[in-house]
Amino acid sequence: MKTRQNDVVAEYLREVDQRLAGLPVLQRRELLNDLAAHIAAEQSERNLGSEGEVIEVLERLGSPEVVAAAAHEEAGTRFTPPVGPNRSRFWLIFGIVGGVVLVLFLCAFFAFFASSGSSVEGPAAPAVTAPAPSAS
């Protein structure tokens, strides 16, 4: 049971660390050590016996994004959330599907007007007549 609790804590701290990119190394280490000490103190004081109870402690601390954003704000640096492979894959698929739908729509649009027999024409041009020959 303790191993699973430790895995959850290690994963949480790893995610926080990833989001602290851009902060000085010593500041990152200090924050991660403080978080680890706080979590360990909660585990021992409350005698947490399940993974769910550890997760509850982590939720109270805030998501890794929230913790990192607060650290960046305090340091005066800019926090940019990482884009994971799932997000970038989503946008790639979204772009491809959107492009295909657009092409199909345009093909259907032009096919409709081509088959309906109507044509789009501008205003009729005035008839041009040749000048009559002059009698001299």
Keywords:
about 140 residues; mainly alpha
Describe what you observe in this structure.
The chain is mainly α and 136 residues long. It folds into two domains: 2-75, no CATH class; 84-114. The protein is built from five helices and no strands. Helix 1 packs across helix 4.
Number of strands: 0
Order of helices and strands: HHHHH
First-to-last CA distance? 118 Å
Gross morphology: elongated
Summarize, please.
The chain has 136 residues and is an all-alpha fold.
Give the SSE map.
Elements: H1 2-19, H2 25-46, H3 51-61, H4 64-75, H5 85-115
